[in-house]
Design brief:
There is one protein chain. The chain is mostly helical. It has a single domain (6-127), classed as Four Helix Bundle (Hemerythrin (Met), subunit A) (Up-down Bundle), CATH 1.20.120.330. The chain contains five helices and no strands. Helix 1 runs antiparallel to helix 5 (106-127).
Length: 130
């Protein structure tokens, strides 16, 4: 893995995605926390992709910012359906802590997992990580 430093990021992303996909196994598990894992999976995949292309992974939770860095620094096209994942940003911080927000619904959770899974598949296809 020292020869391929992006693989550690992809492995961590796969772990977050697997946790997100496990769903609400009991009532104590909140959709907000599962969506946080989906966001983390997407974020770590994109950071792994940046490292794959020889770039650094910035300390940011912004999926949009990571997309911009990939567009500019990696010179690859990002499919439109992948860019929809910017909606995962709200799960990085806003819903992570108790506060003034509406609870995440099952439908929103399913969409978050779908988007994270699409990013995973796209990045895995480019890097060869499975």
């Amino acid at each position: 893995m020292k020869d391929n430093p992006w693989e550690a990021w992809i492995r961590r992303a796969r772990s977050n995605l697997a946790r997100a996909k496990q769903g609400r196994q009991c009532e104590d598990i909140l959709y907000e926390d599962l969506c946080f894992d989906a966001q983390q999976a997407a974020e770590k995949c994109l950071k792994g992709l940046l490292i794959y292309f020889g770039k650094s992974a910035p300390r940011t939770h912004s999926i949009g910012h990571l997309f911009n860095l990939i567009r500019r620094g990696c010179k690859i096209a990002i499919p439109p359906e992948i860019t929809e994942a910017v909606i995962l940003n709200e799960y990085a911080v806003t819903t992570r802590y108790p506060g003034d927000w509406e609870p995440v619904t099952c439908e929103e959770y399913e969409e978050a997992v779908r988007l994270a899974d699409e990013i995973w598949s796209w990045v895995a296809g480019i890097t060869g990580c499975e």
